[in-house]
Design brief:
- This is Uroporphyrinogen decarboxylase.
- InterPro entries: Methanogen_methyltrans, UROD/MetE-like_sf, Uroporphyrinogen_deCOase.
- The protein has 13 helices and ten strands.
- It is of the alpha/beta class.
- The strands form two sheets. Strands 1-5-6-7-8-9-10 form a seven-stranded parallel β-sheet, with helices on both faces.
- α4 crosses α5 and α6 runs parallel beside α8.
- The longest helix is centred in the middle third of the chain and has 26 residues.
- The chain is globular.
- The two termini are 12 Å apart.
Length: 324
């Protein structure tokens, strides 16, 4: 029987896996890295960039707040006066938990994966709001190029520290690039503003021992896949079934792999049922095992409602028994 790591590699390289890859099982995620990201349920707070966040009780996630003068960037042409790079923590004490976790991972069994969020596009609209960020791409492209370069440099500085401290061989990087039905920006605009930044970031990781780049965008982004390949993404995690997954596999299989197909909104909700989970997982597994990993579209191996991921994994196991 192949290890989880071996089975993943056989899947994404068009080899001979002996079962479906089961969601995130091939990665041991090191979530202890001191990135400054906070998750404060039921609270309002400012992060290390000065972005105001809220996570209202009863909601499934947090979101940045920009109304009533709370946006960090109020005028894009004056972004240099508003945005300051947070200090990057480098002390052994701050990294101790992450280092201990990394050292405990059996890298023959799983990839030691660092996590990074928010990504470049998300940072632009976290700082100023979605509408203002999108309008700035049209109205003030020079300022947006400068801001994106600034954010890219910060990411690279953080990557240097993560690589030095925990020596990862995989990266799970978040940046949502679309809604369920379209990308947020056109392919031409994506190529101009975001592709150069990610080519720098992902090439740096690969030049420094990271074998596997997994990018999360739970969205429609089929029109951006050629750029994903160019920037070095190995696995697009979060691919929704609003994308034509069979067509993506036919056109791009062997150049990139796809992880998702199980829409979290259709399985992970208050009154979820095993029957509903089975339908979604079985449909996802019909995409086959070459270059495809059945997985919830959510960007971490977590669930909003207890038992959902266990139910998903059970169906994947059952589908493996019949398919292999």
């Amino acid at each position: 029987m192949l290890t989880k790591r071996q089975n993943l590699l056989e899947t994404i390289k068009g080899g001979k896996p002996d079962r479906f890859v089961k969601q995130y099982e091939f990665m041991d995620l090191i979530m202890e890295s001191p990135l400054g990201v906070e998750f404060n349920y039921g609270q309002t707070w400012k992060d290390h960039w000065g972005i105001t966040w809220q996570w209202p009780e009863g909601q499934l996630g947090m979101f940045p707040v920009h109304a009533n003068g709370l946006a960090v960037i109020k005028e894009i042409t004056e972004w240099k006066d508003a945005v300051k790079k947070p200090a990057i923590e480098t002390s052994d004490e701050a990294w101790a938990a992450a280092v201990a976790h990394a050292n405990s991972i059996d890298r023959n069994e799983q990839f030691a994966a660092v996590f990074y969020a928010p990504g470049i596009f998300e940072m632009t609209h976290h700082l100023m709001g979605m509408e203002n960020a999108l309008m700035a791409l049209y109205e003030e492209p020079e300022a947006m190029h400068e801001l994106i370069d600034f954010l890219t440099d910060y990411e690279l500085d953080m990557a240097k520290v993560m690589i030095d401290k925990v020596h990862p061989d995989a990266l799970l990087h978040h940046d949502d690039w679309g809604s369920q039905i379209s990308s947020f920006v056109s392919p031409d605009m994506f190529e101009e503003f975001l592709l150069p930044a990610y080519k720098k970031i992902y090439q740096f990781y690969k030049d420094n021992g990271v074998e596997l780049i997994v990018h999360h965008s739970d969205s429609y982004a089929a029109n951006l896949v050629p750029f994903m390949i160019e920037m070095g993404i190995d696995i697009w995690q979060g691919v929704m079934n609003t994308n034509d997954i069979p067509e993506l596999l036919k056109e791009y299989g062997g150049k990139i792999s796809f992880m998702g197909g199980i829409h979290s909104g259709l399985v992970d909700y208050p009154d979820w049922t095993k029957e509903a989970v089975a339908v979604q997982v079985e449909n996802a597994c019909k995409n086959g095992h070459q270059y495809f990993i059945p997985c919830q579209t959510s960007g971490l191996p977590i669930e909003s409602f207890e038992g959902v991921n266990t139910a998903i994994d059970e169906v994947i196991d059952r589908m493996s028994k019949s398919a292999f």
